[in-house]
Amino acid sequence: MAADWRTDLVDRLRVLIVKAEPGVVEEAKWRKASNPDGVPTFSCGGLICTVETYKDKVKLTFAKGASLEDPDKLFNASLDAGTRRGLDIFESDELDDDAFIALVREAVALNQA
After folding, report:
1. Which residues pair with 85 in a beta bridge?
2. 2 has a pLDDT exceeding 80
3. What is the pTM of this model?
């Protein structure tokens, strides 16, 4: 993918995830011909989230998102899913860094419970 707002956002999310949990492990999974770089996944005591880029958005999927409180209402996708929850971020969206860090920390705590 050519560098654009999505690349910048993924880089920013990566920094925020590491800030929330310095022990996080990032891996690229699900490599295929149409996506040779694979999907970035972040784990700590279990999968926290995946980060995927689409033409019009960056999508974070929290593996156990349905079990997270999300008091700042960051989740806006996969709201009816039984286990996961998503956060679709479009170019014009503003992300609350502190709320995102808190959500990642909550996901890590759930994995370690």
Report:
1. 62
2. no
3. 0.93
